[in-house]
Amino acid sequence: MNPSRSRALSPVTAIRPEPLTIEIGVPVPVAPGILLLRLPLPFALDHINVYLLEDGDGWALVDTGLDWADSRAAWERALAHPLLGGRPIRRLIVTHHHPDHIGLAGWHARRWGVALEISAGEWTVSGRYGDPSRNPHLERIGLWTKNGMAPDDARARAEGMPSNLRMIHALPEAVRHFESGDVLEIGARRWRCVVGRGHAPEHISLFSAEDDILLSGDHVLPRISPNISVWPDGPQNPLAQYLESLGDFAPLGRDPLVLPSHHGPFRGLAARVAEIQGLHVKRLATLEVFCAEPRTAHECLPQLFNRPLNGQQMAFAMGEAIAHLHYLAGEGRVQRVLRDDVARFQRAGGVAS
Q1: Of 279, 267, 283, whose CA–CA distance to 222 is shortest?
Q2: What confidence tens digit (pLDDT) does each residue in 108-127 have?
Q3: pTM
Q4: 282-347 has the same fold as 16-269
Q5: What is the dihedral of CA 153, 154, 160, 164, to 10 degrees?
Q6: Which of 2, 23, 63, 158 could hold 98 in an S-S bridge, CB 3.0 to 4.6 Å?
Q7: For the domain 16-269, what is the CATH superfamily, name and number?
C-alpha cells in the first residue's frame, strides 16, 4: 500500500465527523451524486474509501483498492447494489500511485474500457510495479543500514515484509495526465485539481468550490497523519514538501465536507491542517533535543513511536524518522555527519570533530 499511516494523534477535537454507518462493499451516499465505497485492506489500517461520482449515465471512480480476492468480492457486491443503478464506470481517476489506490486500476480500465487519469508525477513512479527486476522492499536495505539499522536486521525485516506489490493488477495502457489547477467536469460539478507533495510525489486532491467538497485522498486525513518518508529513490526532504503543500489546503472553501481515503468524512479542514502541522512541529522539537548527542534515525525511533514495530511498520517508521531529521538538517537545526558509512545527526553547534 504504503498504508498511509503514521501513529494516531492525540484526541481530535478540531474536526467534526459526519455521522455515517459504513460497511465494507456497501456504497453510502455522502453528498448529492457522491457515493463512498469502503474496501478491505489486509493491514493494520484495514480499509480504504473510494468514491463514485455521478457522471451522466455512468460514474467517475476515484481510487480503486488493492487487487486481492476480498477487495474484488467487495467490488462485485457494490456493483450489484441498487444505488449504483447498474450504470457503468465512465472515468477512472487515481489520486496517487500507492498500491491501495492504484491496485485495481488495470482491472477497472479493462472491465469498463476506460483510460486511467492520474498526474504525470504519480504515473512515472508507478512504473516500478511493472518492472519484475525490482523489489522495492530490498532496495530499502541500504537506506536503513546507512541510517543506523544493523545490516542483518535490515535484511531480515525487508525480506519479511508482506509483498503487497503483488496486489497490483497490470496497469492500464491508456493513460491521461492532469496537473495542479486543471478542472475536471464530472456530472454537474467542476473539480479543481490540488497538488499535495510529500506523502507522494504529485498527489491530486479534488475540490469543488461550488459545493464546498474536498476529495482529500491521503493528503489530509482524520485521526491519523499520512506517512511522510524518505525512500531510496524519492525526494530527500519530503517533510518540507508536505508542510508547504499542506498549507495550501487550510484556506480551501468555507467549511468543506472532506472526503478522505481512510476513516470517515469530516468538517473542520483548517483546524485539522493545524493539528497535523502541530504534530510535526512537536516531533521536530523532540528530535532536536534528543540529538544533543549524535543520533542515527534508528536510535530516534523510540522518540517518535512508543510501540513495537513490525516489518512494514518499521519501514514507514524509519522513513518518517529520516524525513524529520532531513528536515531539521535543511533548517540548519541539526548537522549530518557520515562516519563509517552511517549517518548521524547532532544539534547544530554541538558536532564533534
Answers
A1: 267
A2: 999 999 999 999 999 999 98
A3: 0.93
A4: no
A5: 160
A6: 2
A7: Ribonuclease Z/Hydroxyacylglutathione hydrolase-like (3.60.15.10)
Residue 248 CB contacts under 8 Å (≥ 6 apart), including other chains: 194, 196
Identify the sign of the CA torsion 136, 142, 145, 146: negative
246-274 tens-digit pLDDT: 999 999 999 999 999 999 999 999 999 99
Domain boundaries, the chain: 16-269, 282-347
Position 149, amino acid: M
Q: Quick one: pLDDT at residue 350? A: 60
CB 325 within 8 A of CB 319: no
Rounded Cα gap, residues 186 and 190, in angstroms: 6
Q: Are strands 342-347 and 47-55 parallel, antiparallel or unpaired?
A: unpaired
126: which 3 cell numbers?
508507478
Spell out the alpha helix ranges (H) of the chain.
69-79, 99-102, 105-112, 120-126, 136-146, 151-159, 238-246, 269-290, 297-304, 311-330
Which one-letter DSSP state was computed for residue 23? -
Domain 282-347: give its CATH code: 1.10.10.10
Task: Dig out the grid coordinates for 328 from the structure.
Answer: 531539521
Percent of the chain predicted with pLDDT > 90: 83
